[in-house]
Amino acid sequence: MIGQSGIAVKHVRRADAASVAALAKCGVATIHEAMGRIGLLDTHIRPIYPGAKACGTAITVFAHPGDNWMLHVAAEMLQPGDVAVLGTSSDNTDGMFGDLLATSFRARGALGLVIDAGCRDTAELRDMGFPVWSRAVHAEGTVKATVGSVNTPIICAGALVHPGDVVVADDDGVVIVPKQRAAQVAAAAAAREVKEAGTRQRLAAGELGLDVYGMREPLAKAGLKYFEDEAAWQREVQK
Amino acid sequence: MIGQSGIAVKHVRRADAASVAALAKCGVATIHEAMGRIGLLDTHIRPIYPGAKACGTAITVFAHPGDNWMLHVAAEMLQPGDVAVLGTSSDNTDGMFGDLLATSFRARGALGLVIDAGCRDTAELRDMGFPVWSRAVHAEGTVKATVGSVNTPIICAGALVHPGDVVVADDDGVVIVPKQRAAQVAAAAAAREVKEAGTRQRLAAGELGLDVYGMREPLAKAGLKYFEDEAAWQREVQK
Amino acid sequence: MIGQSGIAVKHVRRADAASVAALAKCGVATIHEAMGRIGLLDTHIRPIYPGAKACGTAITVFAHPGDNWMLHVAAEMLQPGDVAVLGTSSDNTDGMFGDLLATSFRARGALGLVIDAGCRDTAELRDMGFPVWSRAVHAEGTVKATVGSVNTPIICAGALVHPGDVVVADDDGVVIVPKQRAAQVAAAAAAREVKEAGTRQRLAAGELGLDVYGMREPLAKAGLKYFEDEAAWQREVQK
Amino acid sequence: MIGQSGIAVKHVRRADAASVAALAKCGVATIHEAMGRIGLLDTHIRPIYPGAKACGTAITVFAHPGDNWMLHVAAEMLQPGDVAVLGTSSDNTDGMFGDLLATSFRARGALGLVIDAGCRDTAELRDMGFPVWSRAVHAEGTVKATVGSVNTPIICAGALVHPGDVVVADDDGVVIVPKQRAAQVAAAAAAREVKEAGTRQRLAAGELGLDVYGMREPLAKAGLKYFEDEAAWQREVQK
Amino acid sequence: MIGQSGIAVKHVRRADAASVAALAKCGVATIHEAMGRIGLLDTHIRPIYPGAKACGTAITVFAHPGDNWMLHVAAEMLQPGDVAVLGTSSDNTDGMFGDLLATSFRARGALGLVIDAGCRDTAELRDMGFPVWSRAVHAEGTVKATVGSVNTPIICAGALVHPGDVVVADDDGVVIVPKQRAAQVAAAAAAREVKEAGTRQRLAAGELGLDVYGMREPLAKAGLKYFEDEAAWQREVQK
Amino acid sequence: MIGQSGIAVKHVRRADAASVAALAKCGVATIHEAMGRIGLLDTHIRPIYPGAKACGTAITVFAHPGDNWMLHVAAEMLQPGDVAVLGTSSDNTDGMFGDLLATSFRARGALGLVIDAGCRDTAELRDMGFPVWSRAVHAEGTVKATVGSVNTPIICAGALVHPGDVVVADDDGVVIVPKQRAAQVAAAAAAREVKEAGTRQRLAAGELGLDVYGMREPLAKAGLKYFEDEAAWQREVQK
Lengths: 239, 239, 239, 239, 239, 239
Description:
two-stranded antiparallel ribbon, alpha/beta, homohexamer, 27% strand
């Protein structure tokens, strides 16, 4: 049940390692396209430093505003290759995560964090190379008073995340690949990259997308009219 | 007509090359001041990486939300030295532009893109050194279903842009110089830079702006009162 | 009186230099915690470049929207080690501060600026290494028509700032330490850093926060239940 | 699959009528509490007129930005007592719904619409008494070019909605009750209302929540200290 | 020139009275559609009370943040049937307009105000029945220190407005009809209303938009597939 | 100390009743002007229903995100004529206040609430006629886990509020009058109303503000130039 508090699930089925490894080679935009244009988190989730990149399996965290207790509970569930993903019961930007938790997460083998709340100690995290995608940078401290859940399905920044799903995050944002679809999406993304490489070459050589993608006829059908210059357009308007 | 769909104007009169070259030497803030404090795009338009800089002539694009078809039409109109500028019929942050279109734009000689929508593949664009100023970074894909226009006047992020106008963009944002005023503004901006260099030297030497700009008398006239310290101020208040 | 216009106080009592030096060694998050989780500015105040850092005594500026006159008045009050802090009478993002004022401020010994308005010439400021924390990057110019105040108490981005208070700013944002508390907070922050260093070592070695902080019992009391896996949880739900 | 396009499911299992009728008697806040504080849509979803109220079973719609085609597909699936709920693939405020669609929806027996996009003809809708909860009021027209889905699970304003779930909406916003839990939540909400009626009487008679809820001891344990007046507090501080 | 300060144009050519009268009978959404889906102001412009409605010819005002001087200059240019429209040089929410200016505007025959800034005395304005569409309700006072312009072209909330253009505003927002197109748009809007009346009747009688607009075939071509129920869809997915 | 937790001050010195009664007769905009254009809360604080009005003495509440415990503590301090004002340690929109607390507050004689967080049960509050000014309408429930303070100075929506200050709130927003200045501000506001009544009469009779306020000469000095029509302006431009 989404948003239920008081649950900590110890063991989760994770997406298979081969698919995760394959997805790690692709960018967020490519994977999102390969899935059928779904799975992105909202644009308010941004990396705390440029060049951040992570691909791993989700440990999900549900927390309440101003309370980071569940991140400590989550630390115990983290395995090498995991990425923690935190959603909240209500909008909040408090700095739930900093360099101490990052030290703990890294010791457990975690590759990063996606948090629909705030992050702090961002200079230290950049120096550590521990990537975080957050809603805000905020030094505001949090309490440990109310329990949420770990490893239940959550909604994080508009996306549904199940424990064990693949989380891919880079400069463009974050995409979630359901574990059941990981192999299929990895294959589709790889195929897309191959195809795009060919297109890229043609475009780099000066060919136009209009021709590469065969758009001229559909554009005309959709009503696009070409004019030699502004004067020609204005003559048409005044007819 | 602003916002009309279905028009693609092939040839546009561009600002003269000498003025564009002169403007390229100045920053956005200086040019905006030299024009009489006008021409800036809204602050939600930000470069996708620090240090981005472009100065060129506008190819204008009018597009609908979630639809990047017109960027392909615009590619054909791009000439070396152009900067594409895209406005939309309604607020949208979808990732209308990525590394494939950038490859095509660069092959045509374009220097950059200003887009009141989203941009993706930002790591690749940074690596390519292809500067984009956008409303958002968003991996969300777009369709090619509804025609807009190319090379008609548009409103982009609160500024009116005609095809061929000069687009200057840097870390501070984006300013549009109407092509008819390009030479005059370039001269005024250059003059301003000379004048500011002198002021900068005086300020660096420790002179105060109060004296450099002769502000002491106008401040007094406008009602500013000096007090030695807080106690003196409080005594005045309690009189 | 907060928000009164027309006052310029020349001399202010500043926090003691030893406390400022001690605080300069700590991060914003640590200091905020050491003060009892107070004193932060709102998250809309961000550094104009990554890695910005400043710690100094506040010269306060109260200004009106679109008018940067008071920054020139403030320049005269600046002493080596000061950080200017500007609040406004109403929300505004105009570029009140640029490289000329930064040149003047630096000549006076100022270490940086915190401004609840816009900043421009950001590439030049980055090159100068003059750090600014602002609400926006905006090239929009300002007038010099209406007086505000210098060195009166202000509210800046949700925080009360008195002249002479300590301003600490880094990648995480900005925290204000009242001058009366500077020594106490500096000591508490240093103690906190020592304690955190120990905790960091234990966490890095793989110990869990759950054990380091003794959270297992409080979590159980607060109602957290552990399940081996999702199936176990679902069996519980269906009971 | 959330966010898949091209699917129109004709028949859905709806929450039982008795539970819907029972929930219709309770407010959104009460139901949210009775469910365990979950199920609310984000606060950007607001009624287009005060006093709007609806409680019915969800017909779900997944649409693309600037495209309202799927609302016409949904009209055919609507039965008396339904409330349509629309989520989008990307943020959009275009006016996807107006008085013509409302006329059609009402003819089908629909009780209202929850739409994470824009609404128009709001004066006419108010006159019709057809309630809509939307992200924006916007006259901007939409196209019919790209298919989404009807009656697949969607995320709308941060909440997961399945076809047939109960949608309760009033001045406070919108809450979704999963159909499987409808009876249980209806009972819990009714019980809560009875209990609150008793509490309301005591509070109206002047009793304090501190006593009604037994908060004095927990507050003291949590560290709250009472002082007779400000002077007493200041004496304590200076000890 | 857009955004030039210091200009006050006394006499403007206004859209013809017959067209204005015809447009006054239509809603903002209808007129926007009849113009080809253009001309709307951004959605941040909202009426200060429900049921507000105005249709008149534009007197344009360009003002600086926190300065309402130009509204007094505009008062002199107002004639019966005019609507004042104010854009600013930079984002601002200060309360530039209140009941005194409304008294003056009404005495001149003005029908309302559209202002991309703040409005105050909103209870009095509601009591007077003087409609205002604004970016914010804000009591913040303004100065009279810097000149802008009256009756020059402006950009207001993303729309280009020339003096004399028709301004139509209601609960849905604001649309600008260029004076040259007023007659044509009025005719198209009236025709649209007639056509919509017929459609409304059919929809009210229970016909579906799918049939009224002939959408079934295009939807199938665009890839929409119907399933009897969720089980049927899931069987398809698992094939 | 602003933002300190754990303090509850029982008795506060309130502004004198005569001043409060006098201020109750004036609107927020007038009082703000009479104070010297200061004291307003940020525009994100809005009444939950139109026509809301309150004027009373402040009981201040400092709370943590998602926790409304301190509102119960505040209830005991409320006396007839008080208005509760709540600020938070960090941005939060949770529904901290609803009809039960309103029942309790009203039983204590409170006149309303200003809350920089969310409010719920808004239909019931409107029916009760209990006015609330809030940052959001949100049904989200809160916990009672962390203590804040009551009757310490707070910052609420950008304004400093001391216990006992006068809170005036209406459709335009909220203004805080420091208790020490209440008599003076009440007198100034009354005088302003008298003066404005005279001005209103002159404006209603058709006199222009340009003449009433003697603006013609200052406008000319500031550089405003009048042109008969657009053609005259364009001739000037082309000189």
